[in-house]
Every structure is written in structure tokens, then in C-alpha cells.
Design goal:
The chain has helices spanning 46-50, 73-88, 108-120, 131-138, 179-194, 200-210, 241-264, 268-277, 291-299, 312-322, 324-327; strands at 3-10, 14-19, 23-29, 32-35, 40-44, 59-62, 65-66, 69-70, 95-102, 126-130, 149-154, 159-165, 168-175, 196-197, 221-228, 234-240, 279-282, 303-305. The protein is α+β, with helices and mostly antiparallel strands and 338 residues long. A hairpin with a 4-residue loop joins strand 11 (149-154) and strand 12 (159-165). The longest helix has 24 residues, at 241-264.
Length: 338
């Protein structure tokens, strides 16, 4: 009676919280600002992200997740606690039953870390679901039918590729190359070509504004501000969308390899379904201009971008929570301790 059902898309870059009956109520960056003197969290989410690269020595901005898994357990628990508290605020609900999405390639230890962090934040019980399953549901795909459905979820830390049939994953590949790797590729390219050091936030802005995966009719340019590595002085350079595409070629190649490998491991009958129905793109990486065209060129299959790619995983948890009996078998089994 006093339990609120909460679905969490615990992402490397952003965390989304879905509350049954209300929809997505929270979208926050997965960042925590920690005071090193007191070892206490000063701010969580948007406030913490705003101060990245601008803090004094005593305050550091920590991203508790790396490559889709928990890298700092205590900070992750603090962040989840804050998000769950916001979800329960101004209600009579005192308990939270939580469903968390995890990458399909995580180990048993990494799975346990996510579960324990949520339990430390006060959630009971905590259940887990694989990201490709939630992404496919959130994109509106019918995964319960005995037909092959392919989803490619490109997030911040991981890219999840899966062919799903009858509510289960038939063939999948999880690579720890996604949005963050795209940003770092831009940072490294600018450093090598222009001897200019830029921050990850600047690289992310470049990716969003002029980044593309496929050649465009009209190429764009953007002015970058950074520090010259030779003389240590601030400097401006102009970068083109073609150069950004060149910078992104390596991480994009890894994602394409994951798609090809998943297709190679798919049974012929389901491959025929995928050719007919196409590939659905979800996650922030789906918004990179020309991503659908690139995958279409490399695979020869129709590629569709979900209507709201950033929300798919969180919306998928919501669909599961709103009809638990139908999707119960898709939830991860309880972790056994030996």
C-alpha cells in the first residue's frame, strides 16, 4: 500500500527515473560533487555537472559510473539515494520497489554492485533488467512475439546490440564504446592535430553541434577555445564537421563491428525478420546526425531512429512496472551469494 514502483535508467552520462502512474519525473546527469575534506556529497545531478572543471581543489566532480558499470560504490549509492528521495518527495509512499537497467555485458560482480548500491539507498526489493530489453519495449517494439527484433542502444558508456525474440535475447553484443568514447576521440584528435587541449564538456558540445557519422550536403564549422600545449596560452581554432567525422571514425567502427557480429550470430529465420523489420536505434548516440544512414550503408538493412531515443530505456522500465505479470520472466534472477 505504501510502496512506490520506480524504474531507473542508471546511465554513465545521465540517469532517468520513471515512477509508475506518473511517467519520467527525473532526468539528471550522473554526476556527484564531493568535498574531499569532509568526504560528503555537496550536490548531485545538474548542479554537480555545472561545476565540472570549475571547482577548487577541495571539491571534485565524480562520475560514479564508468562504461555502464559502477566505478565508485559509495558515491553511486549517494546519487541513487538522492534520486529515489526526489521520486518519493511530497508523497505518503515510504518504500520504493526499484527496477534498474544494466548493460547485457556486465559481470556477476558488477550486477551485484548495482543491486547493493540501490539497497543501500533504501530500495526494497531491487530487481534488474537488461538494457536492450527495456530499450526495445520503450521504443514500442513487440518483443513477445516469435519474430526477430533488433535494437541498437548507444548510451554514454556502452553500446548494446541485441536481437530479441519471445521476450528473450537471442544474440547480443555489448561494447564499452559509446557517447563518452566519442567525446574522448574528439579531444584526442584536436590535441594531435592542433596541439590544443580542450575539455570533455567542450568536446561534447562539438559532437552535438557539428558532429556527424555520415557525410552531409552542407558541412559546418565551429570555433574551439582551449590551451595550446606548446606555449601554455589560450588559443582559438576552427574545426569542421568533416574533421569531427574523421575523429569519430574509430569508435563508430567498433559499434559497427558489434552490429555485424550480432547479425552473424543470429539464426537465419530471425535474420529474415530483421531484414524485413529493420534495426531500431535508441539512446543518445542515435541522435548523432547520419548514424542511421551509416548503419544502413554498412548492413544494407532499413534503420529507424526511435521517436524519443533518450527516453526509451526508462520508458521500457515503466512498461514492465505497469504490467509486471506479463514481463516477470524478463527480470534478472535474484543474485545468489555463495
Amino acid at each position: 500500500m505504501f510502496t512506490r514502483y520506480i524504474g531507473i535508467d542508471l546511465g554513465t552520462a545521465n540517469t532517468l527515473v520513471f515512477v509508475r502512474g506518473k511517467g519520467i519525473i527525473l532526468r539528471e546527469p550522473s554526476v556527484v560533487a564531493v568535498n574531499t575534506r569532509t568526504d560528503q556529497a555537496c550536490s548531485v545531478g545538474k548542479e554537480a555537472k555545472e561545476i565540472i572543471g570549475r571547482t577548487p581543489g577541495s571539491i571534485i566532480a565524480v562520475r560514479p559510473l564508468k562504461d555502464g558499470v559502477i566505478a565508485d560504490f559509495d558515491v553511486a549509492a549517494t546519487m541513487l539515494q538522492e534520486f529515489i528521495k526526489k521520486a518519493l518527495r511530497k508523497t505518503l509512499f515510504t518504500k520504493a520497489r526499484v527496477l534498474i537497467c544494466i548493460p547485457s555485458g556486465v559481470t556477476a560482480v558488477e550486477r551485484r554492485a548495482v543491486k547493493e548500491a540501490a539497497e543501500k539507498a533504501g530500495a526494497r526489493p531491487v530487481q534488474l533488467v537488461l538494457e536492450p530489453i527495456a530499450a526495445a519495449l520503450g521504443a514500442g517494439l513487440d518483443i513477445l512475439q516469435p519474430t526477430g527484433t533488433m535494437v541498437v542502444d548507444i548510451g554514454g558508456g556502452t553500446s548494446e546490440v541485441a536481437v530479441i525474440s519471445m521476450g528473450g535475447i537471442v544474440s547480443s553484443r555489448s561494447v564499452r564504446t559509446a557517447g563518452d568514447a566519442f567525446d574522448m576521440a574528439i579531444v584526442n584528435y584536436v590535441r594531435k592535430k592542433y596541439n590544443l587541449l580542450i575539455g570533455e564538456r567542450t568536446a561534447e558540445t562539438v559532437k552535438l553541434e557539428i558532429g556527424s557519422a555520415f557525410p552531409e550536403v552542407h558541412e559546418s564549422t565551429m570555433e574551439l577555445r582551449g590551451r595550446n600545449l606548446l606555449n601554455g596560452l589560450p588559443e582559438n581554432v576552427t574545426i569542421t564537421s568533416g574533421e569531427v567525422r574523421e575523429a569519430l571514425s574509430e569508435p563508430l567502427g567498433i559499434v559497427l563491428d558489434a552490429i555485424r557480429e550480432t547479425l552473424r550470430n543470429t539464426p537465419p529465420e530471425l535474420s529474415a525478420d530483421v531484414i524485413e523489420q529493420g534495426i531500431t536505434l535508441t539512446g543518445g548516440g542515435a541522435l548523432l546526425r547520419g548514424m542511421d544512414k551509416l548503419i544502413n550503408r554498412e548492413t544494407g538493412m532499413p534503420v529507424y531512429v526511435a521517436e524519443y531515443p533518450l527516453d526509451c530505456v526508462a520508458e521500457g522500465t515503466g512498461k514492465i512496472l505497469e504490467n509486471l505479470p506479463a514481463y516477470e520472466e524478463m527480470l534478472m534472477e535474484e543474485i545468489k551469494y555463495y
